[in-house]
Write a structure and sequence with these properties.
- By secondary structure, this protein is α/β, with parallel strands linked by helices.
- It folds into 3 domains: about 5-240, Glutamine Phosphoribosylpyrophosphate, subunit 1, domain 1, CATH 3.60.20.10; about 245-445, Rossmann fold, CATH 3.40.50.10490; about 445-585, Glucose-6-phosphate isomerase like protein, domain 1 (Rossmann fold, 3-Layer(aba) Sandwich).
- About 35% of the residues lie in helices and about 25% in strands.
- It contains 18 helices and 25 strands.
- Strands 3-2-4-1-10-9-11-15 form an 8-stranded antiparallel β-sheet, covered by helices on one side. A 7-stranded antiparallel β-sheet has the order 5-6-7-8-12-13-14, with helices on one face. The chain has a 5-stranded parallel β-sheet with strand order 17-16-18-19-20, sandwiched between helices.
- Helix 9 (about 300-315) packs parallel to helix 13 (about 400-420) and helix 9 (about 300-315) runs antiparallel to helix 16.
- The protein is globular, with a radius of gyration of 25 Å.
- The structure holds fructose -6-phosphate.
- Fructose -6-phosphate binds near residues 347 and 480.
Length: about 600
Amino acid sequence: MCGIVGYIGNNDSKEILLKGLEKLEYRGYDSAGIAVLNEAGVHLFKEKGRIADLRTIVDEKVTATVGIGHTRWATHGKPSKVNAHPHQSASERFTIVHNGVIENYEQLKAEYLEHVTLKSDTDTEIIVQLVEKFVNDGYGVQEAFQQTLKALKGSYALALLDRENSDVIYVAKNKSPLLIGLGDSFNVVASDAMAMLQVTKEFLELMDQEMVLVTRDDVKIFNLDGKLIERMPFIAELDASDIEKGTYPHYMLKEIDEQPFVIRKIVQEYQNDNGELVIDPTIVEALNEADRLYIIACGTSYHAGMIGKNLIERLAKIPTEVHVSSEFSYNMPLLSEKPLFIFISQSGETADSRAVLVQVKEMGHQALTITNVPGSTLSREADYTLLLHAGPEIAVASTKAYTAQVAVLSILAEVTARSKGLALDVDLPHELGIVASAMEELCDARDEFEQIASDYLAFARNSFFIGRGLDYAVCLEGALKLKEISYIQAEGFAGGELKHGPIALIEEGTPVFALATQENVNLPIRGNVKEVAARGANTCIFSMKGREMDGDRFILPEVHELLTPLISVVPMQFIAYYAALHRGCDVDKPRNLAKSVTVE
Ligand code: F6R
């Protein structure tokens, strides 16, 4: 969701900015722009659509050693060239890029900018107009910037250029992610490290309500009262090759294929020299001391949380609830006496989840974040973190992060159970090894899944995924994958619920995918399949070795029953991928979606 880049140095900034924006494409966007500043003034290029479209309008002849850039995911005002960033003040002296939502922009407009004619429908334009207003009132630029920041309510990561001074980029952050990258005679600004790995691996983290002056040779961080803050840089443990597609046509396909490796890596990361799985004892203690766990997450991570609940309750015997973040923050249920909150988030930046984290921390509760991104906001602000070790996930549709979340939750459940002396019938490192091999088998069977996508979804307008127990959670994820990238309406249902309403939607030929991997519900789910088949549905059953029956379309390799979600999701991912591909959809960057959802 919205990405920011900035460069100040001695080289031409255009290509660095454009390449940086390309690396942020995965976050999701609908328009993009850059502004560069040289002796002749500010040169502004912006366009609706892709970075490739922006490239066609950037004037090659313009050279400038300072600039800012942006990918926009519309919040205020529709996607258009006018609403694309950068935005400029009335006199065009100031130019800004912004990520976040200014909640009091209407109020600021009424209070300070009554006589200013705004050019766009964005909340962002208010910020840049306000800086100019304060400068016109007699403040120096730094003070005007500071005054503006103090007036803003909401979230922002922003970078501002002053036409009168090409030696500085003014930067600020509150609730939206932003980093400063450090170089030799240059410095950069980026929403995430990936955007600027092309020029540096050394970064400075910014905290909320900080303001930064970035020059060619220096970076000065201030709080909003103007107090200088010292901060040590960190080295981003990322390899540029981790974020390349290599020979793959799409990141999503690469990331599906990486899953066996990720599962093995997770086992390695969480195993001690004796081959036992280990987790920081303070985290295990926190789980054991809690009388109830509250898993908080959105989308795919929520689906992983549903499986986590099941694993924790079955293995560690701790009552666990799972909640959608955006619901929890406005409709908090009655909490237990000693809750522990577990936030699951691939990006670690999801605003809906962060809102809950802020609330529960204010209430004095403990929180654990399970995330793929070390140093992310949710990781920094929780008491404890467990990492997914999945490597950067670039495709908007989450695949390997989901299976990594389930695997890490299984380890958390197992280690906690063992710490309580509970008898376990699962040798988890061994069983996860079997899962990794089973995933490889499934990746090798991709042609079969392509065929299924073509047989069932070529002309489909809608589709259903049904299952019971753990399979139900995977069905929700399978349906989400399909709808988000192929735009075929897809809904997941608990098999037993169908007859209570959804079955009315079944027509001749409606595709219904059913998962049948769970022993205790094998017969009931098959009964549900018969019910829809009798009404004309085109049914496709995925069962598991040992539970197969005549007519099953695909038999998954056998894995421990608790770990079936790790493998039954793989065919769902491939089917979604091929269905989207056959329809000519942009698999890695589906419409309207963002990878890192940093607004509520
Ligand atoms: C779907 C998907 C989203 C995310 C959700 C939460 O493929 O990726 O549903 O799971 O936006 O994001 P994180 O996990 O970053 O908090």
